[in-house]
């Protein structure tokens, strides 16, 4: 069992100056109990905490680390930019064109793209653009999906708000809340009802095409196809929020994986390679409404930041050159099969959902296809499971409702260790 003395000391101090001691609620151990662990160093698939304990990492900075932490090519590229280019200009730089061109090449829906600094900025901007373009106010999202902390999205949201049990946030005005309608994931009828009840008023439908903030829930292909058709019929902008699944489930994201092309796409995480980056893009006809070309305002002092773009560009280049996706699939499938074999031995039958290297073991026997089925999972059992894995040196997300990310740098030995630990943790979850 790791000794966490220094982490506990730091957390006590942090609480005095930082709300809840953390700069993002998902980092707190609210639903699993205990106190957050302060990390000191990341290396590949491992991280070492301030007390000297080392963990095998399946959070990967919540998604960006598809190549692990501190990939040598990434650190070299960042160092080059730092020494030879600079940290920021507030003017255009050539790197911006390079990453925009590459993104438009690999992501099917992109004809033009705007870089921002986070996933939240990307989704907020995409929705404003859809509203400006259509002249309509309302949006439809899906219960349990998380699109960052923009006001419009904090209605029945997933991720940290779901973990904390408060999926609607105080501080969001009634007016904003009224413009956000929630449908049921994987249920096209629930969307049609809302569209019919709000005829001609819906600007956009925004969806995580692989939901990763209610655990992991794959979209059914026919559901996404039906959404596409509905949006075409009704003149609604279809937005795929690929902040998490983009470049993760396939190089071209879920839209490549499912073969369904949205009008706009939001991105983040992996395209920043661990630095703060987001982006939104899509059809030229829509994107040309963004300022200064069009009237929909969107801006950012540090947008297109050289260091962040360097990390993102280098990550994309490695993904293109090395095509890690078959290997990621093999690794994640190995874990899934290993966990299944452990459950068989223990007479357990919990649901596992997985799309490529995004996975979730739900402590429920109910198939998880939407928010309602996801919340049948037993968070208390997950908490015990989480702590047992942690005690065995494996760092999972401190919440039942988050994804487990396998990276390209998890070795077969790492995976075997994880499967062995999973057996013990499943036992611990039932004690
Ligand atoms: N959309 C999705 C699908 C996400 O998973 C996240 C973050 N987990 C966001 C948007 C928000 O991104 P950020 O935290 O960078 O603002």
Protein described:
One of its GO terms (cellular component) is cytoplasm. Belongs to the class-III pyridoxal-phosphate-dependent aminotransferase family. HemL subfamily. It holds the Pfam family Aminotran_3. It is found in: Cytoplasm. A seven-stranded mixed β-sheet has the order 4-12-11-10-7-5-6, sandwiched between helices. A four-stranded mixed β-sheet has the order 1-2-3-15. The model has no long low-confidence stretch (mean pLDDT about 95). The chain starts with a helix and ends with a helix. Helix 9 (about 255-260) links the parallel strand 10 (about 235-240) and strand 11. By secondary structure, the protein is α/β, with parallel strands linked by helices. The chain is built from 15 helices and 16 strands. The chain folds into two domains: about 5-65 and about 330-430, Alpha-Beta Complex (Aspartate Aminotransferase, domain 1); about 70-320, Type I PLP-dependent aspartate aminotransferase-like (Major domain) (Aspartate Aminotransferase, domain 2), CATH 3.40.640.10. Bound molecules: 4'-deoxy-4'-aminopyridoxal-5'-phosphate. 4'-deoxy-4'-aminopyridoxal-5'-phosphate (PMP) binds near residues 118, 241 and 244.
List keywords for this structure.
single chain; alpha/beta; Aspartate Aminotransferase, domain 1; Aspartate Aminotransferase, domain 2; 15 helices; 16 strands; binds 4'-deoxy-4'-aminopyridoxal-5'-phosphate
What is the topology?
Layout: H1 5-17, E1 39-43, E2 46-49, E3 54-57, H2 72-84, H3 94-106, E4 112-116, H4 119-134, E5 138-142, H5 159-163, H6 174-178, E6 180-183, H7 188-197, E7 202-207, E8 210-211, E9 217-218, H8 221-234, E10 237-241, H9 253-258, E11 264-268, E12 278-282, H10 284-287, H11 306-322, H12 325-346, E13 351-355, E14 358-362, H13 371-374, H14 379-391, E15 394-395, E16 404-405, H15 412-429
Helix pairs in contact: 2-11, 3-11, 7-8, 12-15, 14-15
The protein binds 4'-deoxy-4'-aminopyridoxal-5'-phosphate.
């Amino acid at each position: 069992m790791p000794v966490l003395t220094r982490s506990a000391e730091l957390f006590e101090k942090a609480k005095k100056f930082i709300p809840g001691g953390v700069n993002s609620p998902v980092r707190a151990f609210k639903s699993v109990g205990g106190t957050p662990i302060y990390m000191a160093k990341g290396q590949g698939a491992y991280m070492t905490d301030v007390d000297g304990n080392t963990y095998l990492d399946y959070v990967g900075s919540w998604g960006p680390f598809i190549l692990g932490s501190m990939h040598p090519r990434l650190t070299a590229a960042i160092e080059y930019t730092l020494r030879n280019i600079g940290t920021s200009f507030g003017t255009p730089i050539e790197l911006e064109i390079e990453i925009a061109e590459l993104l438009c090449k690999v992501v099917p829906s992109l004809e033009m793209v705007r870089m921002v600094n986070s996933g939240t900025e990307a989704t907020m901007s995409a929705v404003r653009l859809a509203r400006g373009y259509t002249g309509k106010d309302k949006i439809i999202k899906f219960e349990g999906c998380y699109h960052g902390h923009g006001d419009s999205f904090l209605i029945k949201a997933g991720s940290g708000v779901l973990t904390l049990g408060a999926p609607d946030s105080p501080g969001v005005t009634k007016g904003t809340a009224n413009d956000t309608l929630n449908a049921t994931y994987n249920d096209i009828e629930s969307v049609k009802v809302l569209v019919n009840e709000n005829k001609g008023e819906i600007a956009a439908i925004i969806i995580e095409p692989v939901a990763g903030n209610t655990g992991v829930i794959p979209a059914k292909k026919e559901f996404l196809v039906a959404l596409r058709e509905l949006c075409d019929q009704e003149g609604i902008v279809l937005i795929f929020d690929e902040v998490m699944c983009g470049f993760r489930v396939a190089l071209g994201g879920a839209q490549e994986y499912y073969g369904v092309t949205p009008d706009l796409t939001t991105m983040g995480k992996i395209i920043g390679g661990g630095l703060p980056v987001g982006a939104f893009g899509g059809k030229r006809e829509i994107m040309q409404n963004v300022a200064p070309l069009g009237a929909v305002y969107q801006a950012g002092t540090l947008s297109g930041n050289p260091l962040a773009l360097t990390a993102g560009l280098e990550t994309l280049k490695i993904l293109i050159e090395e095509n890690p996706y078959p290997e990621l699939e093999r690794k994640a499938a190995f874990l899934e099969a290993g966990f299944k074999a452990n459950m068989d031995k223990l007479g357990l039958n919990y649901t596992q959902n997985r799309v490529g290297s995004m996975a979730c073991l739900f402590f429920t026997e109910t198939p998880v296809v939407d928010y309602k089925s996801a919340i049948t999972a037993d968070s208390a059992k997950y908490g015990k499971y989480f702590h047992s894995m942690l005690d065995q040196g494996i760092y999972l997300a401190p919440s039942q409702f988050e994804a487990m990310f396998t990276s390209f740098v998890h070795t077969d030995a790492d995976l075997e260790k994880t499967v062995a630990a999973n057996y013990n943790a499943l036992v611990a979850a039932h004690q």
